[in-house]
UniProtKB/TrEMBL annotation:
<protein>
    <recommendedName>
        <fullName>Phosphoglycerate mutase</fullName>
        <ecNumber>5.4.2.11</ecNumber>
        <ecNumber>5.4.2.4</ecNumber>
    </recommendedName>
</protein>
<keyword id="KW-0324">Glycolysis</keyword>
<feature type="binding site">
    <location>
        <position position="112"/>
    </location>
    <ligand>
        <name>substrate</name>
    </ligand>
</feature>
<comment type="similarity">
    <text>Belongs to the phosphoglycerate mutase family. BPG-dependent PGAM subfamily.</text>
</comment>
<dbReference type="InterPro" id="IPR005952">
    <property type="entry name" value="Phosphogly_mut1"/>
</dbReference>
<dbReference type="GO" id="GO:0004619">
    <property type="term" value="F:phosphoglycerate mutase activity"/>
</dbReference>
<feature type="binding site">
    <location>
        <begin position="128"/>
        <end position="129"/>
    </location>
    <ligand>
        <name>substrate</name>
    </ligand>
</feature>
<dbReference type="Pfam" id="PF00300">
    <property type="entry name" value="His_Phos_1"/>
</dbReference>
<dbReference type="InterPro" id="IPR013078">
    <property type="entry name" value="His_Pase_superF_clade-1"/>
</dbReference>
<dbReference type="InterPro" id="IPR001345">
    <property type="entry name" value="PG/BPGM_mutase_AS"/>
</dbReference>
<dbReference type="GO" id="GO:0004082">
    <property type="term" value="F:bisphosphoglycerate mutase activity"/>
</dbReference>
<feature type="binding site">
    <location>
        <begin position="101"/>
        <end position="104"/>
    </location>
    <ligand>
        <name>substrate</name>
    </ligand>
</feature>
<keyword id="KW-0413">Isomerase</keyword>
<feature type="active site" description="Proton donor/acceptor">
    <location>
        <position position="101"/>
    </location>
</feature>
<dbReference type="GO" id="GO:0016791">
    <property type="term" value="F:phosphatase activity"/>
</dbReference>
<feature type="binding site">
    <location>
        <begin position="21"/>
        <end position="28"/>
    </location>
    <ligand>
        <name>substrate</name>
    </ligand>
</feature>
<dbReference type="InterPro" id="IPR029033">
    <property type="entry name" value="His_PPase_superfam"/>
</dbReference>
Length: 263
């Protein structure tokens, strides 16, 4: 893994962008599909945001002008914790529904191991990682259906665009206009942090790195590990690839954990 180029600002005018998956949520802890259900961070997730993400950013001497999140609390709370630890609570936060986690349809609320035992691991991994894997739409008898559909945080979702399920492909398309807005900020020289969800982080990485539909299926994002990108402000081009901040062994362990169905 290459080092952050500390002298890059002397060679060309550049700007850095940081992408962070939120800390462990209550549903992450319980190994459940979450999607658009608005759960809180677990106590460990709050600690991850503070002790893993914020500490890594402080060590790298990162600073920010604006932060983007989804409208879901696990995303917003992660940003609040990180910015507070960095003494940067003054940084404005822009919450955007287009950055919400992928909607897992009627899988929402179910334990991943339970679903794998019921439908088979191959089917579940296709729903989780396949580019066009589309879970069954959420139904009114799902215990989280009304909590999701009636949640006022989704009031900005345009009529006809409220999903009942999504594939990774659909999530990639939903995120694209939000990414265009964020990239404009970066290329204007604003230092941007994005605190979002696992699948949305994958969707952003597909746009940022130009990954193929096949390659993005094998990308897994650990909670609360900052991923840094650097842009040449003159050309608007990405310089190299993304760099994780933190202990390589920890990152490897947590990435493998995310990839597995779990117990």
């Amino acid at each position: 893994m290459r080092e952050l180029r500390k002298t890059s600002q002397f060679m060309m005018k550049t700007n850095r962008l940081v992408v962070i998956r939120h800390g462990e949520s209550e549903f992450n802890l319980e190994n459940k599909f979450c999607g658009w259900h608005d759960v809180s961070l677990s106590p460990n997730g709050a600690s991850e945001a503070c002790d893993i993400a914020a500490d890594a950013l402080i060590k790298a001497k990162m600073q920010f002008d604006v932060c983007y999140t989804s409208v879901l609390r696990r995303s917003r709370d992660t940003a609040d914790i990180i910015l507070a630890k960095m003494n940067s609570s003054y940084v404005p936060i822009k919450a955007d529904w287009r950055l919400c986690e992928r909607h897992y349809g009627n899988l929402t609320g179910y334990n991943k191991r339970f679903i794998a035992d019921r439908y088979g691991e191959e089917q579940v991994q296709y729903w989780r990682r396949g580019y066009d894997g589309l879970p069954p739409p959420i139904q009114p008898d799902n215990r989280y259906y009304y909590a999701i559909c009636n949640n006022p945080v989704f009031s900005d979702v345009p009529a006809g665009q409220f999903p009942l399920t999504e594939s990774l492909h659909m999530c990639v398309e939903r995120v694209k206009p939000a990414w265009d807005d964020i990239l404009d900020e970066v290329l204007k020289g604003n230092r941007v942090m994005i605190c979002i969800h696992g699948t949305v982080a994958r969707a952003l990485i597909k746009h940022i790195e130009g990954l193929s539909d096949e390659d993005i299926q094998h990308v897994n994002i650990p909670n609360s590990v900052p991923r840094v990108y650097e842009y040449d402000l003159k050309t608007g081009k990405l310089i190299g690839g993304g760099i994780y901040l933190g202990d390589p062994e920890y990152i490897k362990k947590m990435t493998a954990q995310v990839a597995s169905i779990g117990k």
